[in-house]
């Protein structure tokens, strides 16, 4: 039984590793794709943006499908879709086809991730076992991200950008085979009232519109009618979603499940983490290749040791921290590392000090992400009943990618303000200053909530 559970954990972890690898590996390959298809910088960036938006926008639906249709069915459907789109993207002979497959790949990830997390929470039923399994699962996200950063440039430079997609094929094929053999078919929920999938589509529409609006502010600033229309659509969509969810007999999101203190803290903090991390990677990639003149392969080699460090921290240090400290304090440590990493990168950019760059990467991609993601995920899911874990994990990951979409859009906005920041270096420093503020906000938020919990504990002890 223990060996079978370990294999199930491996299946789920391979999915999150692949998803994180695929997201991170794109950062260092974008310049090569841009040159191959003769694109402008803002065009190539949409390969990352569309993936994040559709992934985050449809995660809630993926989580609900896992709850009612069955975890195994949804996991295998998402894995198969991810496999097909990876092959299609690698074979694409035009940017339009590549964009299409990348977008659909985001939908595949939206099915794959919440079902993988729901498989874990259904397999490991005790709180201690579930916390440990979720910690390992989330650690693989940090490891995959580190490997994507370190290997992305090397693979794209030596084998061609197509191989950043082809590398997915053997991993996802193995996951599909093992899932088919090992995972048990779970019973389908027979709700008399169909789930409110329309609310999920409306929420996705709202997220996509908001991210597009932020991204396109420089082009919309002289088009007041379009601004009014977009803001009206965003507001009406959000209001309708909230009202519909509150009155529907079988809502897509049961907001009562999200009222737990740790659940709210975890989801809000992971939103801030998402807005920081992918934007940090984008700025770092530009700095290494555009300012320092690194090739994609050299940038990948620089990042490689830190992916190894991330794996070691996830494997050995993180379990010890979880046993000894409150989960909110572990999360605060991770976000503090993000803050110092951003500060060090700003100093490195301003004074051209390479050692500060190295320490910045160590803080963020080496240790910060390996600690932050697992701790915040455990906080957000530990108080959720097993039969709602699919939707809860969808909300958690949507929070992260909604933050990512907002963060990337804000960085894109800063990079277009040529009159305020006339050079690329100044644009990058301004972008990192914004990210520094986001990390500081996350640290202060977690600090405030930790103190509030301590005061509540002291009050209860005196009663």
From TrEMBL:
Bilayer topology reads: Multi-pass membrane protein
Asked whether the keyword Transmembrane is assigned, the reply is yes
**Which keywords accompany this UniProt record?**
Membrane, Transmembrane, Transmembrane helix, Transport
The Gene Ontology terms for molecular function here are: transmembrane transporter activity
| Top-level division of the source organism's lineage | Bacteria
Q: Cite the Major facilitator superfamily (MFS) profile domain residue spans from the record.
A: 8-451
Q: Which PROSITE patterns match?
A: MFS (PS50850), SUGAR_TRANSPORT_1 (PS00216)
The record's section on Gene3D superfamilies has:
MFS general substrate transporter like domains, Multidrug resistance protein D
Q: Which residues cross the membrane?
A: 7-33, 45-62, 74-93, 99-121, 133-155, 161-183, 195-214, 220-242, 269-288, 300-318, 330-347, 353-379, 400-421, 427-447
UniProt entry tagged with the keyword Transmembrane: yes
CDD domains to which the protein is assigned, alphabetical: MFS_MMR_MDR_like
Cell compartments where the protein resides: Membrane
Quote any Pfam family the record assigns.
MFS_1
Gene Ontology terms: cellular component: membrane
PANTHER family, A to Z: MAJOR FACILITATOR SUPERFAMILY MULTIDRUG TRANSPORTER MFSC
Q: What is this protein called?
A: Major facilitator superfamily MFS_1
- Give the source species: Sphingobacterium sp. (strain 21)
């Amino acid at each position: 039984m223990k060996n079978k559970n370990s294999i199930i954990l491996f299946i789920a972890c391979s999915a999150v590793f692949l998803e994180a690898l695929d997201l991170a590996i794109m950062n260092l390959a974008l310049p090569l794709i841009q040159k191959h298809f003769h694109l402008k910088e803002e065009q190539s960036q949409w390969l990352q943006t569309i993936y994040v938006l559709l992934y985050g926008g449809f995660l809630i639906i993926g989580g609900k499908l896992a709850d009612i249709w069955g975890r195994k069915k949804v996991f295998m459907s998402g894995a198969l879709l991810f496999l097909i789109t990876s092959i299609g993207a690698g074979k694409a002979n035009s940017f339009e086809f590549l964009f299409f497959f990348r977008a659909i790949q985001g939908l595949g990830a939206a099915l794959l991730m919440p079902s993988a997390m729901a498989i874990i929470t259904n397999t490991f039923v005790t709180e201690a076992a579930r916390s440990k399994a979720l910690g390992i699962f989330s650690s693989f996200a940090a490891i995959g991200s580190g490997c994507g950063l370190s290997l992305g440039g090397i693979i794209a430079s030596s084998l061609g950008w197509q191989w950043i997609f082809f590398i997915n094929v053997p991993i996802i094929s193995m996951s599909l085979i093992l899932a088919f053999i090992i995972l048990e078919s779970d019973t389908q929920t027979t709700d008399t009232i169909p789930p409110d999938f329309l609310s999920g589509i409306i929420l996705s529409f709202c997220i996509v519109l908001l991210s597009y609006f932020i991204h396109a502010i420089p082009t919309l600033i002289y088009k007041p009618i379009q601004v009014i229309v977009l803001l009206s659509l965003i507001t009406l969509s959000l209001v309708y979603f909230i009202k519909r969810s509150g009155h529907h007999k079988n809502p897509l999101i049961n907001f009562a499940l999200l009222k737990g203190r740790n659940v709210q803290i975890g989801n809000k903090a992971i939103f801030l983490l998402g807005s920081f991390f992918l934007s940090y990677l984008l700025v770092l990639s530009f700095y290494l290749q555009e300012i320092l003149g690194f090739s994609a392969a050299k940038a990948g080699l620089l990042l490689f040791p830190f992916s190894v460090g991330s794996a070691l921290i996830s494997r050995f240090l993180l379990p010890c921290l979880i046993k000894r400290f409150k989960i909110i304090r572990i999360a605060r440590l991770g976000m503090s590392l993000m803050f110092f990493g951003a500060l060090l990168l700003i100093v490195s950019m301003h004074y051209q000090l390479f050692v500060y760059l190295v320490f910045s990467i160590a803080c963020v991609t080496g240790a910060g992400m390996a600690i932050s993601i697992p701790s915040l995920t455990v906080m957000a899911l530990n108080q959720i009943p097993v039969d709602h874990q699919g939707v809860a994990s969808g909300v958690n990951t949507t929070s992260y990618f909604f933050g990512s979409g907002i963060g990337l859009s804000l960085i894109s906005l800063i990079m277009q303000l040529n009159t305020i920041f006339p050079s690329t270096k100044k644009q990058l420093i301004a972008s990192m200053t914004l990210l520094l503020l986001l990390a500081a906000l996350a640290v202060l938020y977690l600090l405030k909530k930790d103190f509030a919990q301590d005061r509540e504990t002291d009050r209860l002890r005196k009663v």
